[in-house]
Amino acid sequence: MDPESGSRSPGSRSWKAYRTTLLLAYQSFGVVYGDLSISPIYVYKSTFSGKLRLHEEEAEVLGVLSLVFWTLTLIPLCKYIIFVLGADDNGEGGTFALYSLMCRKTKMGLLATPQAANEHLSAYKLETSSKETRTSLLVKNFFEKHRTSRIALLLFVLLGTSMVIGDGVLTPAMSVLSAVSGLKIKIPRLHENCIVFVSCIVLVGLFALQHYGTHRVSFLFAPILIAWLGCISGIGIYNIFKWNPGVVRALSPYYVYNFFKKAGKDGWSSLGGVVLCITGAEAMFADLGHFSKLSIRVAFTAVVYPCLVVAYMGEAAYLSKHREDLHSSFYKALPESVFWPVLVIATLATVVGSQAIISATFSIISQCRALGCFPRVKIIHTSSHVHGQIYIPEVNWLLMLLCLAVTIGFRDIDMIGNAYGLAVIIVMFVTTCLMFLIITTVWKRSIFLVLLFVITFGSLELLYFSACLVKVPHGGWFPLIFSLIILLVMSAWHYGTAKKQAFELQNKVCLDYLLSISPSLGLVRVPGVGLVYSNIMTGVPPMFAHFVTNFPAFHRILIFVCLRTLTVPKVPVDERFLIGRIGPPEYRLFRCIVRYGYKDGGRDSYEFENQLLMKVAEYLQQEVGDSLVNGEMSVVGQPSNLVVDAVMGSERTERSKKRVRFKEAVGADVRQEVRELADEREAGVSYMMGHTCVVAHESSSFIKKFVIDVVYGFLRRNSRRPAVALGIPHASLIEVGMVYHV
Fold first, then answer.
1. Is the separation of the CB atoms in 293 and 86 below 8 Å?
2. Distance between terminal CA atoms of the chain?
3. Separation of CA 596 from chain center
4. CA distance 113 to 489
5. Which of 88, 119, 165, 534 is nearest to 373 (CA)?
6. Alpha helices (H) in 113-182, listed in sequence order
7. Would you call 141 exposed, middle or buried from its count of C-beta atoms within 10 A (0-12, 13-18, 19+)?
8. In whole angstroms, what is the distance from residue 85 CA to residue 292 CA?
């Protein structure tokens, strides 16, 4: 080996890591920072739209600038960049990531998965745990003893999730309408209806392009945002030197004190507009899964943060000398020669910012759906390389209709801003509360660090929240009503799903009992492989027992399949299948638990069939080599070349050809069962699922009947059927009807 090459390899690896980080930081501009970067368009206008109009003096302008600066510094820079990004769930971020992390590390959540079935998963191997503190023990004991507290915690998380979805409605409406309204600066006679009409056209075009996937136009997003940040920072520097270089003094917190001293209660009520300067900060954490913590930190601290600070300073410098322009400050502060180029870039930047929150909405709904907290919807993966790029048609068109309704209904940027600010601050407060639980129970830090975090950020967010509550009658009611509707939908779906699974667990049948009565039923075995889908990991599902007692026949090889979504982002493919035998070998009965993460991709039915049967064949070979005890389940990792060649020997997709290759490849195997598996697969594979009707018991309360029979029943009838969601071919499907009285 060349010693010089060996000496260069650490440096080359270090340069490669730097290059990767810089590339991710560049890409993050087009995905993460769009919403945060377009805030200068409407922050000052919204802040001075209320009673603060009576205080349009230089001291108040500089006071608002000081508030904006310290808000940007404390919440996005200190809270998110320093603390929250460190609470990732195996590289994933967002409200549900924090909750899933708690579910996995503690017993405080309702979505916790039994550790016994997942002890072999690398994602479930707990890190070296630090010593429990008194605070962590108190918090854990409280939640473990009181089920109502765990229910309240889940509802709190769902509330934050609902507000994020509400942001998906408000962000496009607010940003696009704000950008297009700049036309009135050059065309004063332009009617308000024309502004609304142009905004609606842009919104329709934005949502109509979603089905192409962000990967087709993502290469344009980062340059647009970088051009936008360059424009606003350059104009900011120009305005500072031309109008008021002394505006730099406003970075002192004294100007915050002076602002409230002069404006009083009116200054407090204006905080609902100031909070708009941090809209989109949550995206730094929510979109963490697409990038890395270091890349997001580098992009924000080195580029986004200084550009925004300079932009706000430049706008304040202009307003300090032109207080009559406070209500259209951003476009008024533009030099005449760059007005139209900046207007075009601003419109494009609002589209990018809207795209970011729409993609985040798709992502969080996908996570909620995977964890049983949202009805089944169609999810299309628009990129074969980047898993997180998805498209949900039903949600996309519903968001478009709601955006158009908000734009046409409100027509007023100030009212939309009131709604927007309330939704944003609630999401941030939910994150702060969840971080309190993470710091105490997962990180196990001292009570002083916990109090420092909660008092610093929680008190600031509660101050903004109180100011936003005052504006509930003036548009702030929209996110509250919308989030309550989404919360009801998500809670009802989770409650109904939990009751359905509890019924199946309580009414499962022992296999020995079922086989003992088989002679009296005249049970026969028919050729083929049967895949029986259920939600239980032990015993026989009531649906299958109901089928056998009415139609006493099933396939010669029967595999009970249980699909589980765990509270981890992704499960490696070689750890996904947990396979075991049921009963003596002559029964040819197997159980397979298939583990997915809440961000794992689509599931092609035929590819899944290939993988499952390969894993069963590999399990049978492993059973001989390892002498597994009957009933013991085993994780089947990478299959041998024998089985891989059997199923994946070529790229041809015809089922008959693949099944012939499968049979030929395993024909020489010494195991009779493996040859039988190949023969029975050639005979045909059938899928059996329950087609259940869940109704509340007659003795149930009125509220339970309403939730189960009305809300949950409506959602089940109008959501995608499980077989369709799993992509099971209709010709191979057997559905068993059954009524569950829960």
1. yes
2. 70
3. 15
4. 23
5. 165
6. 134-145, 147-180
7. exposed
8. 9
With contact defined as beta carbons under 8 Å apart, do 460 and 410 qualify?
no
Phi first, then psi, for residue 179 (nearest 5°) are: -70, -45
pTM: 0.83
What beta strand segments (E) does 549-699 contain?
Answer: 553-566, 577-582, 589-597, 634-635, 685-695
Residues 166 and 545: their CA atoms lie apart, in Å, by: 44
- Relative to beta strand 589-597, strand 553-566 is parallel
Sign of CA dihedral 277, 283, 285, 290: negative
How far is Cα 329 from Cα 603, in angstroms, rounded to an integer? 51
Residue 573 DSSP one-character state:
G
Q: What is the pLDDT of residues 190-249, one digit of tens each?
A: 888 898 999 999 999 888 888 776 555 556 678 999 999 999 999 999 999 999 999 999
User: Helix (H, G, I), strand (E, B), or coil: what is residue 569?
Assistant: coil
Query: Which burial class, exposed, middle or buried, applies to 267 when counting CB atoms under 10 A from its CB (0-12, 13-18, 19+)?
Result: buried
Helix H, strand E, coil C: the string for 699-727 is CCCHHHHHHHHHHHHHHHHHCCCHHHHCC
Phi-psi region of 29 (alpha: psi -120 to 50; beta: other; left: phi over 0): alpha
Closest CA to 214 of 368, 78, 353: 353
d(CA 180, CA 253): 34
Task: Look at residue 358 and give its three-state secondary structure.
Answer: helix
Q: Are strands 553-566 and 524-534 parallel, antiparallel or unpaired?
A: parallel
What pLDDT digit, counting tens, does each position of 331-364 carry? 888 888 898 899 899 888 888 888 778 877 888 8
- H/E element, 588: none
The C-alpha atoms of residue 226 and residue 209 are separated, in whole angstroms, by 22
Measure the CA–CA gap between 72 and 40, rounded to whole angstroms.
12
At 356, which helix (H) or strand (E)? Answer: helix 339-370
Question: What gap in Å lies between CA 571 and CA 197, rounded to an integer?
Answer: 47
Q: CA torsion sign, 116 to 120 to 121 to 123?
A: positive
> Is the Cβ–Cβ distance between 707 and 496 less than 8 Å?
yes
**107 vs 623, more confident:** 107
Q: Which helix (H) or strand (E) holds 737?
A: strand 733-741
pLDDT tens readout for residues 472-531: 888 889 999 999 999 999 999 999 999 998 898 888 888 777 777 767 777 788 899 999
Which token pair is 617? 């064949």
Q: What share of the chain is helix, strand, coil (3-state, %, to 5)?
A: 70, 10, 20
